[in-house]
Write a structure and sequence with these properties.
341 residues, 3 domains
């Protein structure tokens, strides 16, 4: 998983593409009476068109939302609100410490610095990094090309590929290992959806309890942040609590910290129990797999850790079952031989 997955990842994407487009290929074969290769090419072409349509549609939606926000004066409003927050924090820090650790006028300097570092185009820096950028671009395009071509080839030979993989991995697409793997994956997705729904509900109700103005939108946004393993609710609640503390609103500051503790505890409690209960793995094993996965795979360990642990567990169970069945057959043969003797 750690060393081979980055190498074979384009082929894994190609296999997923073939698996997703296989019903469409069969439909083209039956409806158009086309050959398998032509039907596979048409299915891949339709899939690529749908993917490009989704990407361009999403890009247009983001561009439209950005243009609409600019026309409504959202950047100026955010700049003005940020200045109010900055000045309030500066005043509170001055009241507490008696010193101006942050000057109110530094806000304009901060915004200008962020803008220069974020949106400044440096031709010299771009030319210096051109080699690295071009190399990364070529590697990405090569990976996409390999994934598309391998997906087409796998799509054309999907029945044979399915049969060979089934023979090689002991019934990967039949009742057994592969069936349990697919079932466990679906159960994992449902458990995560239930956890996300619970965390989002807690955030919405918590913001509603303190009378926040946009409690529904902000609560859903925080719930989405919690769904991402690199963010969590702390990236929203803790800075918000600090701002409320510096603004002198101590009750809401404490409440946001309490909400962060509740949502974090809820996820840490529900995740091992739900996943362990639905997949049939002890909750402690799930927690250990997530922790070890993060240590080994870094950011991707939240997903790769449980997957790796489940693969090891299922391979061990299948091997144990086969050894047990083999031992029972040998014992039965020995008993039959004794009876005949």
């Amino acid at each position: 998983m750690e060393y081979l997955l980055p190498v074979v990842f384009p082929f894994c994407i190609g296999f997923v593409v073939a698996l997703a487009l296989y019903p469409l290929r069969k439909w083209f074969e039956q409806r158009l009476h086309a050959k398998r290769e032509l039907a596979g090419f048409l299915a891949l072409f339709v899939g690529i068109c749908m993917a490009l349509l989704f990407i361009f549609g999403l890009g247009y939606l983001l561009f439209y939302c950005g243009s609409y926000a600019g026309k409504c004066g959202l950047p100026e409003m955010m700049f003005s609100q940020g200045r109010v927050v900055w000045n309030t924090c500066c005043d509170r820090v001055h009241d507490i410490t008696g010193r101006w650790l942050m000057e109110p006028g530094d806000y304009t300097v901060l915004v200008r610095t962020v803008q220069e570092r974020s949106f400044r185009f440096d031709p010299g820096n771009f030319a210096a990094n051109w080699k690295d950028l071009s190399g990364q671009t070529i590697r990405i395009l090569a990976g996409i090309l390999v994934a598309a071509v391998s997906g087409l080839l796998m799509l054309n030979e999907f029945e044979e590929l399915k049969r060979k993989l089934g023979e090689a991995f002991g019934g990967l697409f039949q009742e057994g290992f592969g069936w349990r793997l697919r079932q466990a994956g679906w159960m994992y997705v449902k458990a995560q959806c239930l956890i996300i729904l619970t965390i989002t509900s807690l955030c919405v109700l918590g913001l509603l309890a303190v009378g926040e103005r946009y409690w529904l939108i902000i609560g859903v946004a925080i719930g989405i942040c919690d769904a991402l393993p690199f963010l969590g609710t702390g990236i929203c609640f803790l800075p918000w609590a600090l701002w409320r503390l510096l603004s002198g609103r101590y009750v809401t500051a404490v409440w946001f910290v309490v909400l962060y503790v509740i949502t974090s505890f809820t996820r840490q409690t529900m995740e091992p129990r739900l996943i362990g209960k639905r997949i049939g793995v002890p909750p402690l094993a799930v927690l250990i797999s997530i922790y070890i996965g993060v240590k080994i795979f870094s950011r991707g360990g939240f997903l790769l850790g449980p997957i790796s642990a489940f693969l090891i567990w299922q391979i061990y169970n299948d091997t144990t079952d086969k050894e047990g069945a083999y031992a029972d057959d040998k014992g039965a043969d020995r008993v039959d031989g004794q009876v005949r003797g």
